[in-house]
Amino acid sequence: MIKTTVQVGGMSCGMCENHVNEAVRKAFAVRKVTSSRKKGLTEIVSAEPLNPDTLRAVIAETGYTVGDIRSVPYEKKGFRLFGG
Fold this sequence. Notes:
This protein has 84 residues and is of the alpha+beta class. It has one domain (2-73): 2-Layer Sandwich (Alpha-Beta Plaits), CATH 3.30.70.100. The chain has helices at 14-27, 52-61; strands at residues 2-9, 32-36, 41-46, 65-73. It has a four-stranded antiparallel sheet with strand order 2-3-1-4, covered by helices on one side.
């Protein structure tokens, strides 16, 4: 799994966040996508790495500005009842 974080400028409301999320979902096979207008970030979890040029173009087409794109390996944090 890969976690991709994208700086996105210009989001000012929940509809803006949804607009970016839907554009990403339509363009890529993703497990999860969330956007935060307060942080100016979109976080995407996918099975395979996303093409940064395509990702930049997809978000830019929605009218928002795209900054830095970073990808790192992602491991889902497990729930533990006991330490160990």
